[in-house]
Amino acid sequence: MKNKLETALDRLVEICQDKKVEHVVSYKLNDASWITDYVLLVTVKNTVHCKALAEELGLKTPELAALSPKDFYERPHMTGNAASGWIVVDLNSIIVHCVTEDMRAYYKLDVFFEKHGVAFHY
Question: Which CATH superfamily is domain 4-114 in?
Answer without folding.
Answer: Beta Polymerase, domain 2 (3.30.460.10)
